[in-house]
Amino acid sequence: MLKDLFYFLIYPGLLFMTVTGGLLSWFDRKVTAMVQFRKGPPLLQPFYDFLKLLLVKETILPAKGSKLTFLLAPVFALCAVIISGVLILMPLFNIKTGFSGDLIVIFYLLTIPSLSFMIGALASGNPLAAVGASREMKLIMSYELTFLLVIAGIVLKAEMNIRLFDILQQQNDTRIFIGSISGVILFIVMLFCLQAKLGLVPFDMAEAETEITHGSFIEYSGSAYALVKLTKYIMLLILPAFLVALFMGGFKFQGIHILWSVLKIVVVVLLLTLIRNTNPRVKIKQAMRFFFIWMNLLAVIAIILAFFGL
Q1: Do residues 84 and 34 touch, judged by C-beta distance below 8 A?
Q2: Angle 243-309-99 (CA atoms, 0-180°, nearest 5)?
């Protein structure tokens, strides 16, 4: 029992994911600043922002809508990312755990934050939040099928294993999945899925500060918005970590491999940040067409190639 609490709350759970996610958020903002020829924030700025929201800023509840649902939505989102983060990071840190089918559970858990934010926006009673929730719903319908096809391709390459620890072991015993044609295609497709899941440009139409003034989160403030921030920090860690687990063989903590393991995460976050800063926001119908047609087509092609061992 104590060991399970340690895993969930300390390492590789809430505390570890908060600190690492905050550092990756700083890295994302620093790279963004460099691309825009700015200085960027100090190293601890994400933690300052979180603590200021949590301890200083007032939580203002919307006059209309369901206050309880509005407040519980960020809590459900945070719990989902913590559980999914533990299920992803423990095999990566060579802690032999999990169960057959945990890959499917992780897929569903990673869907909960977006659904929670959508429900919270609808519960606020704000029309701009409702517009953001509508866009988020359409975006979820677009990329979740693509995300599922990527996981199906990985399961096929892993000889029908649906346990994350076994998939990592197979890559260590043979070769990493990105070292094949189908693996490269699936990697590219999943990268765009992560971009949409994180709500980053060009798929940030659900927030769209210049159009609907932060959309889904327009009514959030204080400690409630601090939980939203924390959820996004953790997602910036666990989603790249999930990609590394599925395609790059996970982490190794021996000698020079420690540096390489850190670089894997940093490179994936760097790619997400560069895509974010070199593309304009697309319309929701363009995003749906992009995933429904092009990304699904690429994923299906990769699955066919994986079937033939390519």
Answers
A1: no
A2: 45
